[in-house]
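Field reference: sequence -> structure
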Amino acid sequence: MIEHYVDLFWGIGYFGWQISSLYGLYISFLHSFVSSIIFIFVLLFSGWANHVILKNYINDPRPVDSTPFLSSEHFRKKVNGMPSGHAQLTAYSLVLAYLLSHKNLYQSLALFFITIYQRYIYKNHTIPQLFVGSIIGIIVGYLTYYIITYLDNNNFKNVNTNFEDINSTQTNVGSLLQNNIF
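Structure field:
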């Protein structure tokens, strides 16, 4: 019975970047539609840059005796470990979500450390790989927050995404057409 809870704990760590990304998307969408688009773009781009560019450039392999969490993880040994993508994307999502909302700091830290710990215990990454991934994620999170703040201060937050406003605009145009204004 206890094994199921241990598996759940490690599963939370393994899927930590996905969980934190959904949370970050939710918080950024609550902030504004524009910030949610920026969040998704930066998440995808930084994940790609980490996996394709940084891991190949740094060329620091994963630990030799890594343990797969899922049976489909056998391909992982071919992918370098520096920097940790799990650490980067989890840190990015949680830092940005906290800066936008100033809520759930302890829950975010718990999810972050469970993710880091799972990656270390399963020997998917070394401590330096996790540390570098975390630092990159924190920096990208802060930079994204400053971009969103800049756009907010320049009225990009109020981009028309309210369907009621769109419908009322269509109604107004329709009444103008009926009254032969155009």
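Note: The chain has a mean pLDDT of 77.
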